[in-house]
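One-letter codes give the sequence; the fold follows as tokens. An example follows:
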Amino acid sequence: MRESYTKGYLFIYGWQILSIILGLLSVFIVVPFLSSNKILYGIYSICISLTIFYNYADVGFLSAGQKYAAESYAKGDRTGEMSIISFTAFILFLFLGLISVLLFLIGLHPNWMIADLQAHRDVRIATLLIFILAFSFPIYACQRILVLIYAIRLEDYKFQRIVIIGNVLRILSALCFFSNGKYMVVEYFLVYQIIGAFVALYGIGDVKRRYSYSWSEFRRFFRFNRSVFNKVKRVAFVSLVLTVGWVFYYEIDQLAISRLLGAKQVAVYAIALAVLTMFRTFLGALYAPFISRFNHFIGLRDINGLNSFYKHIVNLLFPLATLPIIIVSMLAKAFIISWVGKEYDSSVFLVEIIVFTNILAFISYPSNPYLISRERVNCLYVLSMLTPLVFWIGILFTVNAYGLGAFVFWKVVAMILSGICSCFFVYKVMRERICHLSLELLKNYGLPLCFCVFLCFSARYLMVYEKNYIALGTNVLIMCVVFALSFLACLLTSRPLREYVYKLVKVI
């Protein structure tokens, strides 16, 4: 990796780490407040789960736009970059607007979505939450386009700094709306969106100032462009299929549980899902800086460089992706009790299992962007369909017998199969053998992983099983120490990791 890229990655990671820490603080502070009322927390979780429609409203064009805009940027083609980003923004605003109308209609009849919604207060709260979400679509659209503009330059951290300020304000607002026995969930969500609007407005000004972005030129390209559409449609359709598969695997389960099992069961499941979301956020941040870099290689027609870079990333980031999963899944009980209390004891097993769904994240997370950059459509189609089909067919036959346990079990099975297939497809495209990577990872990290498991077994006797912030802080500290010692063991056994860490120290 060139030093300029390495510095960019360091900046991205530095600010993302701070953002993740604040995000964790937000979860640790806000969720205990929200979960104090199990029914309303279940309603809030269900309503907020509707953001999935916003998250995937680009119908694949955002991923395709990032690929081709990054290639244009690598070649110095500013007009091409602007036309692709503006077209992507047009598609995003169009579909977000349509989804906003749909959400408004759902908000008029929230009992369509929530099975046990009876009290007038609960209906009113659900309606207001959905209405606020419906009218917030311009905020989501602006923020996603801004992330795209920063990301293709490998300067995500510059927007991340703005987001961090917003997260701090959101944490402070939670203290206002939920302290002293208050439970003002609607007001909290409204202020949450208002803060997001200010973040977007600041980002728009920053992009114009920093990159000399002409918003008048942006508006000129902000339309349906057939030539751009023809260029991106193939990758966009693949991304759409991947998105649909992702939604059916990751996002729809809360809605299904609300219809099949009710709001209380959603609350139990939401705790496990909150922990899973932490990991998804962390893993996404871990691999996100390299997505645009993959496309830079394609823009420069350097396939050998791309393949070498991919293997380098998988090897170096393996301990960062795997160790936290092992630690949290093995120490989940004390962590959950100290965070939300013993009344959510039934969530512990769900957390232990659901966190483990990401055990092959070190290969699955970078694989899809790699296959997209190589435009391997058939491989991506298989991956997109495999995971949701295995998951929902399993649920269909087992949910009556095992309830929530069925949802968690089949998540694990589906994700492990997806990880295995991702590895197979990537190395088939590279025309290399999977066993070479497996042996290298085993050689570098086999002993540290065993050491980590041993430390986790020992740490269970030190964890605190009480609900308070001191206990939570103590448990988090113990988990961090286990990670630090395990990562140190990785440094001692992996020469490539030592060399790269030494290189980072020199750059710093």
